[in-house]
């Protein structure tokens, strides 16, 4: 396989807190594969609590690429991720190492599979700053989402409209004169992906999300992380855009919310985000859809994925 693209690459998608990382790590241990992060929030440096960036202990020595790529508030688009992902995959292919792409940003996975090519140059700084200011509040982000739907309804249906970075970049492309996102993206050679969608039973998933939020706010971890980042001189609005929970943490530190109110607000936003993720992946072609319940083990999930995506020798089909 050295120097050639494999017949297919396993990709694991699904809503946040469904167990994607644990499954990907188990598969990588079995096959010698390396992981590629496909979560738009985990590309941000240092902010790991609210983004649920996998720890070294969780990875257990399995290499994971495309983490910690940009500073908080720094523009990082689908095109940026796709360019880096292709470079990593080319290197792994040349070395004969399998890849497993894992993350909940469905747009990343679709861009890789369909070979999106992005038109347009760098946006004007003034326009980026204006869009960023508007997107910094929930009401402002909703206004931008409305504009997105009005300009390109079909394109809006392909976006995570709860993700400010995705909405900002899409509007930049449309305001630059592209008639639609499809026209701006174009198509090139795509990557053949065996998409596995992992979800969890609603009660199990609800408990996992509640535990994650309690760990973030109840133990004060996200407050400490945000305070440290602000002390570095990072702007508060840049921290707020890093992921769900960060805007709420900033409001606690600025005295506008108490911890319980912040956690409740973050839970509400997470619920909306999970709903959007489920809708996205429901419309994506998948070779396998799995739902974890209380009795499901990661090993059993990995067995099911291996049966659906790998040959008896452990190589992609």
TrEMBL record:
| Site positions per UniProt: Interaction with substrate tRNA | 105, 128
Region annotated Interaction with substrate tRNA, chain positions: 39-42
Please provide the record's keywords in A-Z order: ATP-binding, Magnesium, Nucleotide-binding, Transferase, tRNA processing
Give the molecular function GO annotations.
Answer: ATP binding; tRNA dimethylallyltransferase activity
Q: Does the keyword Ligase apply?
A: no
Instruction: Check the record and name the InterPro entries matching this protein.
Output: Dimethylallyltransferase, IPT, P-loop_NTPase
Q: What is its EC number?
A: 2.5.1.75
The residues that hold ATP are 14-21
Annotated residues that bind substrate are located at: 16-21
Signal peptide positions on this chain = none
Reactions listed under catalytic activity = adenosine(37) in tRNA + dimethylallyl diphosphate = N(6)-dimethylallyladenosine(37) in tRNA + diphosphate
| Cofactor section | Mg(2+)
One GO biological process term = tRNA modification
Is Chloroplast there in the keyword field? Answer: no
Q: How does it assemble?
A: Monomer.
Query: So what family is this one in?
Result: Belongs to the IPP transferase family.
Q: What does this protein do?
A: Catalyzes the transfer of a dimethylallyl group onto the adenine at position 37 in tRNAs that read codons beginning with uridine, leading to the formation of N6-(dimethylallyl)adenosine (i(6)A).
* Descriptive protein name: tRNA dimethylallyltransferase
- What's the gene? miaA
């Amino acid at each position: 396989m050295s120097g050639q693209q494999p017949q297919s690459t396993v990709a694991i998608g699904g809503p946040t807190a469904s167990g994607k990382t644990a499954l990907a790590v188990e598969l990588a241990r079995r096959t010698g594969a390396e992981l590629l992060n496909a979560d738009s929030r985990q590309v941000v440096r240092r902010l790991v609590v609210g983004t649920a960036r996998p720890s070294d202990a969780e990875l257990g020595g399995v290499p994971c690429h495309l983490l910690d790529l940009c500073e908080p508030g720094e523009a990082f688009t689908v095109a940026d991720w796709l360019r880096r992902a292709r470079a990593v995959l080319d290197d792994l292919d040349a070395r004969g190492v399998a890849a497993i792409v894992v993350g909940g940003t469905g747009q990343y996975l679709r861009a890789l599979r369909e070979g999106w090519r992005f038109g347009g140059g760098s946006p004007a700084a003034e326009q980026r700053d204006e869009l960023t200011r508007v997107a910094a509040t929930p009401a402002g982000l909703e206004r931008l989402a409305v504009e997105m739907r009005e300009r390109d309804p079909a394109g809006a249906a392909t976006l995570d409209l709860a993700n400010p970075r995705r909405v900002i970049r899409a509007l930049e492309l449309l305001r630059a004169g592209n008639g639609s996102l499809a026209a701006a993206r174009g198509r090139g050679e795509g990557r053949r992906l065996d998409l596995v969608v992992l979800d969890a039973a609603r009660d199990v998933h609800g408990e996992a999300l509640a535990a994650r939020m309690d760990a973030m706010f109840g133990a004060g971890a996200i407050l400490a992380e945000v305070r440290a980042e602000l002390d570095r001189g990072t702007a508060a609005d840049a921290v707020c855009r890093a992921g769900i929970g960060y805007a709420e943490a900033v409001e606690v530190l600025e005295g506008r919310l108490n911890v319980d109110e912040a956690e409740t607000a973050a839970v509400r936003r997470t619920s909306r985000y999970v709903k959007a993720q489920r809708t996205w992946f429901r419309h994506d072609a998948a070779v396998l859809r799995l739902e974890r319940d209380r009795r499901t083990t990661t090993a059993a999930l990995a067995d099911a994925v291996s049966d659906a995506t790998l040959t008896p020798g452990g190589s992609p089909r």
